[in-house]
Amino acid sequence: MSERFEPTSLDKLEKQYDLVVIGSGSAGLTTAIKAAELGLHPVILEKMLTVGGDTKRASSGMNAAETFVQTEQGIQDSVGQFYYETLRGGHGQNDPDLLKYFTEHGARAASGSTKKGSNLTT
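User: That's the sequence. What structure does it adopt?
Assistant: Structure tokens below.
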């Protein structure tokens, strides 16, 4: 995907898109990028003047365990530890199956984000 995303006003938008994505946070951008990779023609609608949505305001980037960043920095972590810390943080109210999926796939998501240009080290 070689196209660059640039802000534009509503009156300059094309008339037809395959997918309308609301918000340019990590979920919105990921959705639009994947759609474009699959050959769709997406548009992202963002209320702010800059790209990033609430993700841009997040102080810690992304929660994941056993990531390449942790490995590079010598940080000891595990998926199991991440699971139990997140379960405790959610006061035991987390859906166990969703939490298991989330903790087991976080490192892969982090890796995919950085391949698309995200900086998770700050």
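The chain has a mean pLDDT of 82.
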